[in-house]
Write the structure tokens for this entry.
Amino acid sequence: MSILTKARPAAGVTPPAGGRGGHQKGDRRRRALGKNPIGLLLSAPYLIFVLAVFAWPLVFAVWMSFHEYFFAAPGAQIDRPFVGLDNFREVLGDPDVIRSFGNVGIFLIINVPLTVVLSLVLASALNKAVRFRTFLRVGYFVPYITASVAVVGVWLFLFSGSGLVNQILGPLAPEPSWLINSQWAMPTIALFVTWKQLGFFILLYLAALQNVSQELYEAAATDGAGKVRSFFSVTIPGVRPATVLVLLLSTVTGANLFTEPYLLTGGGGPNGASTSPVLLMYQRGIEQGSPDVAAAIGVLLVIGVLIIAFIQRKVAGGDES
Amino acid sequence: MHTTPTVRRALAATAASAALVLALGACSSGGGGGGVDSRGDITVWLSNNETEIAWGTQMIEAWNAENPDEQITAQEIPAGSSSEEVIGAAITAGNAPCLIFNTAPVAVPQFEKQGGLVDLSSFEGGQDYIEERTGDAAEQYQNADGEYFQMPWKSNPVMIFYNKDMFTAAGLDAENPSLATYDEFLATARTLVESGVAPNAILPAPTSEFFQSWFDFSPLYAAETGGDQLVEDGEATFNDEDGLAVAEFWATLYEEGLSGKETYQGDSFADGEAAMSIVGPWAVSVYKDAVNWGAAPVPTSEGIPASETYTFSDAKNVGLFSACENQGTAWDVLKFATSEEQDGQLLELTGQMPLRDNLTSVYPEYFAANPAYEQFGDQAARTVEVPNVANSVAVWQAFRDAYSKSVIFGEGDLTTSLDDAATEIDALVADQ
């Protein structure tokens, strides 16, 4: 075909300089780099960042989880044999790991719905608030930007045996106290994280609420809907994309729970009742020098989060967004 | 394979970025160290403790003045959640210094496995130097093959500190406290709490970190057994009568509310939240003006003389790291820093006990001039170290988890808990 094309040039038409080879090279470059190669150049730093900080470690963690691996000095002659599913068998046969997944499950069951409900309700209220609007927005956002280490100190003061909460509750205070009580340690952490993260999620909902048309509320009011009915029939459907985002983000950040059990309950106490998978990964991988086992826990955690995220997307109607 | 332009562009960009990432990764790999005879400048890391920096500074000045061609540069151990994590990361990155004067014995087996440490026995006269300086106690710092991957440096033998004013307020004898046996200790503890002078008789950290058992179970187990380690000849020892007695003692304190189960945010002894504390000689300078204190050996079930009482060492040693280019110089500096003169400086400036045989007779003037440290100097001759075994941190975490469950929170049977922990620890030690 190309020979035929070449054999019959259009009369009076001069082939462009460089001939056919130049055409092909230019086409190939355009196909590879697109119409605006500068766009690739501008996005490259972030792409490199994602590859170096997220993608490469993730791939490496998966590789580690299938090998006998520990961190070694450069040049050290270390054998790192492929061990198949041994690390996963060890992890799944370890009651501490199973318990940590159960603990984070309890955490997510409390934290995620509470985050969605509270942030939506508070965002709606803040959206309508006229007085102290800025003060309230800042007030909710301050815990989010304050270092966990500092805020944990306040909660230890509030929830210790002789703390403010127990003094208010008096005889109703749990025994042992909140943070050293097997039943209450994880719910207390879930409550802490909900409170701390709330400002960020309120911000997401506030942004989403700006896109809900005022006409819909007026139409609903014309049809006789009250404030509660409007909230359920206009606000909630109107911010559904934001709800999917809040669900996903709170699940992902919740599954990565580390600082709170590390600091608030003294390393996952009492007696492992607040140990999270990521805290165990830190103990096994960094403290105890078994990053292969830690990687296996991490891979299972990623799979678990992906499954939950998939279900959330289906249930919360993410497709519609 | 059919690919769209968008996919091709994404692939091209990803491939280019991946190549760059791999190239950067390759650049990050450090090189290995030099031989045991190489000489030249070296870098050392010191603890960020103010008194240890003072000691390190004078030691380095003294060395540098005499060795212009082999200069030492020092820095504090970089900040991290623990020194051991920072050192482990430095080993992996290949940028560990030549010497670290704050290497925890519990981390040494792991650093050795990583290929990060140099066997000090491989230096000419290395083994003899260590054993002559530290005496019989040096054996605790050998690995299973009898090699030294750490220089035993200094200990902080722990004892019971008590608040004399609180004892007096509770009607107790503050000069000769009744703390020798478990029964006496418990009776004293009950009196202290019931009299209301302190909410806790003693308050060791009840948290789950692997190292916390060094400051509750370990000292008392060392005393009860006359110097046994928690693992000996590859097997756990603590699930015996002595271990059970120690566990029951602490369980009683928690059960009766004499020791709190909650973490105290601060120094419970200085703040008057506890009438007693388990501390090393560092506490002498810390509590000098804050508390009217006295010191006593850790208790045993029957009560034994102080001169026969063992305790936990809380030692920190020196590691010579394989990334070091000038290992010959590093070994000479190590010997210089642990010489009799420099050990004397360490004692003088930090109040911590050099791991040196016959300490009190080597520095009689110091202990005569500083009687507060004399008990600790004497106690330093009878210390027990964490066992130098494979997976040592995992071993201690397994122990702490079992202890936390059965002793602190009173869940389950103590004997079963210690037996289960021993079985788990035996498997960890056997897994090289």
Observations:
- Chain A touches chain B through 46 residues (CB under 8 Å).
- Residues 189 and 260 of chain A are 7 Å apart (CA to CA).
